[in-house]
Design goal:
Blueprint lengths: L16 H5 L5 H29 L14 H12 L3 H10 L11
Helix pairs in contact: 2-3, 2-4
């Protein structure tokens, strides 16, 4: 997932309920699908962030020393400025990038 190329909003916006529920015909089903995708996105972002921060980690046996690493701070600031996972999931839903199927049908 390329987080830099997304057009998801960083701030909270209001969506038209009819547009959200259009693919499924049920707003609750649509929100459930979006929520599951948001959880997947959150897990991906978290794994990516931990992997990047581990590159800069320094391990010491002393608990008294705390090192501030500029690279770690910059990486953390980048991820803090990204759109939230639910905003990314809603944007994917609106762009019809989420595959879903109803197992009852």
């Amino acid at each position: 997932m390329d987080l830099k190329k997304t057009n998801a909003p960083v701030n909270t916006i209001t969506y038209n309920k009819n547009v959200i529920e259009e693919p499924t015909g049920n707003v609750y089903e649509a929100i459930t699908i979006i929520a599951k995708r948001a959880n997947q996105i959150n897990a991906e972002i978290k794994k990516e962030l931990i992997d990047k921060l581990d590159e800069f980690a320094t391990y010491n046996d002393s608990l008294e020393e705390v090192f501030e690493n500029k690279e770690q701070i910059e990486v953390s600031k980048f991820y803090e400025k990204l759109p939230k996972p639910h905003a990314l999931a809603v944007q994917e839903w609106l762009d019809d990038k989420i595959y879903h199927r109803n197992s009852d049908k």
